[in-house]
Write a structure and sequence with these properties.
By secondary structure, this protein is an alpha/beta fold. It contains nine helices and ten strands. The two termini are 29 Å apart. It is elongated and about 65 Å long. The longest helix is centred in the first third of the chain and has 16 residues. The protein has a single domain, classed as HUPs (Rossmann fold). Helix 1 links the parallel strand 1 and strand 2. Helix content is 32%, strand content 14%. The model has no long low-confidence stretch (mean pLDDT 93). Helix 1 crosses helix 8, helix 1 packs across helix 9 and helix 8 packs parallel to helix 9. The strands form four sheets. The chain has a three-stranded parallel β-sheet with strand order 1-2-3. A three-stranded antiparallel β-sheet has the order 4-5-8. It has a two-stranded antiparallel sheet with strand order 6-7. The structure holds glutamic acid. The site of glutamic acid has 7 residues, from loops.
Amino acid sequence: MAYRGRFAPSPTGPLHFGSLVAALASWLDARAHDGTWLVRIEDIDPLREAPGATQRILDALAAHRLIPDEAPWLQSQRSGAYNAALTRLREAGRLYPCPCSRSELKTHGGQHPRHCREQPDWRQPEPFALRFPVEACNGHWYDRVLGEQPIRLEREKDDVVLRRKEGFYAYHLAVVVDDIAQGINQVVRGQDLADLTPTHLCLYEALEEAPPAYLHFPVVCNEKGQKLSKQAGASAIDAATAPRNISQALTALAHRPPPDLNGAPVDNQLEWAVSHWNPERLQRA
Ligand code: GLU
């Protein structure tokens, strides 16, 4: 099967060093497999979106020669597909409406008391959230860096919200529906998302679709040990220093370029990295 991978940034801010590393890892893995590499903008949460971030991200990727093979998709334009998936889950008995407010959940120690799940009432008036019961999922999954992983969707955790009461679609739903629709069969992303993978696998199973292969690489942290993110104050990557940024991103992925390529033109570094790409090194990154 032809390799199809993607980089799926949320436009909550400009591309920073951590997201450059994520883009580069997925690009390198796709290129090293002669695959197709896509970019999907995960703009499903308008409250978290930064104005202009989508274009800034695409421009910054282009400045680092990370150019998608197909036109980028925007999740903000995909609500029809998300609704269709919710209908499918509902018909399969794998979805229920939950009108509980935050303050109601608080009276139950912040947890969902489950009455909505036991007696789903689809005739009640909106607003309600839509939840996906996760208990039916068990087993193991395999990660190309982490190895075999248990699917542990703990019983004490609440069922997953797939559409919020305010009407927004959840990341879990959108990422799975779009990875299916785009034919993504290789997901390369940071280890901060590894814990969410069992939920995604459960959704693939409920939608009767084959899941992709996964590779979760170690994420870049700041001096405080926090994952680099806009929230943790990571600054925008400076396209003017693209060659240096690529050398540093390759080093973060345990593929430090040889001295004569360190800081060399981006294309030369990328060419070297594609031919030397070895995900086993990520275990030591
Ligand atoms: N949009 C997610 C993020 O920026 C990544 C989604 C994914 O790669 O599955 O954290």
